[in-house]
Amino acid sequence: MITQEMIQNFPTSPGVYLMKTSDGTVIYVGKARNLRNRVRAYVGDTRDSRVHIRFMVQLVQSVDYIVTDTEKEALILENTLIKQHRPKYNINLRDDKTYFSLRMDMKEEFPRLSLVRKIPSDGARYFGPYSSATSAKEVLKQLYKMFPLRHYPLATCMARKRPCLYHQIKQCSAPCCGLITKEEYATLAEGAALFLEGKNTEIARLYRAKMTQASQEMRYEDAARYRDLVRAIEVTVERQKMVAQGGDSDVFGVHREGDQMQIALLHIRGGTVTGGRTFLFDWELETEEGLASFLNEYYDLDAPLPPQVLIPFPIPEPGPLEELLSEKAGKKVIIAAPQRGPKLEMVKLAQKNAETASQERLAKESSSATLLTELAEKLHLARTPRRIECYDISNIQGEMAVGSRVVFIDGKADKNLYRRYRIKGVLQSDDFAMMREVLSRRFKAETTEEQPDLIVVDGGLGQLGVLNAVLDELGVNGVEAAGLAKSRTFRDMESEEISKSDERVFRPGRKNPITLRQSSAPLLLLARIRDEAHRFAVTYHKAVRSKTLTGSSLDQVPGIGAKRKKALLKHFGSLRGVQGATLEELIAAPGMTERAARALWEELQKQKKGV
């Protein structure tokens, strides 16, 4: 437990503190403007009175600190140490989601919109972010109907002798064939950029002026085109009018249910909501500190940074974080908790999204708990199966055999716990022996991995018998077992009608299977787990088979390494293309010498003859 003696010599400068247990495990990393005052808040009568914080403090046996020159440096160091130690009481954001943006380089001869993941400082204009490639492509699809810009790279366009299909459906103005001048195309490109920036009034003014000018010059077709563009823009804007007023910003909402904090994020670009997402964390300290820690970690993952970040309540010491984010963005970034006006309304909307997401999650958890309880009752399990593991085998007559394990926690797949096994000790086609090897490797390994409540194998009494034998041999206790046998199709000899049996669940100690009501929630869950294990095994088997078959003809040849093999496959298009090549073609291939080509050709001839 933290005592006054621990911190009496702490400095009063900015820095980072690390709370450790008796075995030296870091359970919390925090930053502070004044190290001594911040850590003292956890001690004595002035400490936080909430139970979970008192519980954390009880675990702390020592507190280390690292002094920094500024609070901004403390923020950076805090983030680094959290990633290094993954403390139990910190937010550990592992966000693999990729944002997409639309890019347009106005310096190009005929600017084109393209989909990108990164936003480098290259002078081009970027629009977004969009939460998925699908949503970004949908924006492009609608945009091309209003602004017929080119779809393909400039070199591809200019090599064409006639307009592409997009021109036929009026979604490209065909600059490749000179059907639009550079000036007119530039106007289209600028209109598209303004539209993506939400400057719809400015676009309408620009195109109305162009329409009037074209009409006065008796270019009535051009005037009609500008008129149609203005109408299309007005209709689209009316349809998309879920907006906040002005500018780009990220808006955050927070909803707390005990130790779980739900955060909702809305992306506002050009005054329009372009997308959003939610995050869920276990967090046991102050909500304000949790939001500050989340913002620091989220924007450290190269998330798009707008000039304004709106939050529902002030966070402690926002200045250093604003400075850090401004440095990352290369422009001023403001963190604000609005008290009135349109910005407050957007924060309230984000808050509502966070609350709704939390309610949906709780409803799903309740439904999942009910489902697992029902499954335990139907299968006569001793306890609710929170963790279910399922195993499957895939091979071709014993060749290239592999096994798979999938894990479902509370009725949901946890892909971080999936495992693949290459069968090593079984050389013949024996699924039972292969299953024995996989299960033995799973439970013989010295690991702290949590044991399952229920193991499911794909099959009937035979596979279940193997599973029970392995569990008995290894002394694994407290793990329930079940075999799920697929339904069988059969036909009565005296009838043309085809019948299908029910899927059956086999349990140890029962000769007859348990038949669950078809389409019932427990059976659908077991079938989903079984099918996922089968999919995972087959996918791995295909990868192994592809690698083995692709490599067999080339890897045996002296002088053909990984680099040459890759170049050959790329040059000839496939392994079959390499096998069908003549000696002269092999010699002429990129990266090949006559000696290596001859050795390869001779080896391929031997394989063709079956030598």
UniProtKB/TrEMBL annotation:
Function description: The UvrABC repair system catalyzes the recognition and processing of DNA lesions. UvrC both incises the 5' and 3' sides of the lesion. The N-terminal half is responsible for the 3' incision and the C-terminal half is responsible for the 5' incision.
Subcellular location: Cytoplasm
Family: Belongs to the UvrC family.
Keyword Cytoplasm: yes
GIY-YIG domain span: 12-91
Domain UvrC family homology region profile positions: 251-471
Keyword Cytoplasm tagged: yes
Quaternary assembly: Interacts with UvrB in an incision complex.
The protein, known as: UvrABC system protein C
Residue ranges of every copy of the UVR domain listed in the record: 201-236
PROSITE patterns: GIY_YIG (PS50164), UVR (PS50151), UVRC (PS50165)
Main location: cytoplasm
UniProt keyword terms in alphabetical order: Cytoplasm, DNA damage, DNA excision, DNA repair, Excision nuclease, SOS response
InterPro entries (UniProt xref): GIY-YIG_endonuc, GIY-YIG_endonuc_sf, GIY-YIG_UvrC_Cho, Hlx-hairpin-Hlx_DNA-bd_motif, RuvA_2-like, UVR_dom, UVR_dom_sf, UvrABC_protein_C
Species annotation: Geomonas propionica
SUPFAM superfamilies: C-terminal UvrC-binding domain of UvrB (SSF46600), GIY-YIG endonuclease (SSF82771), RuvA domain 2-like (SSF47781)
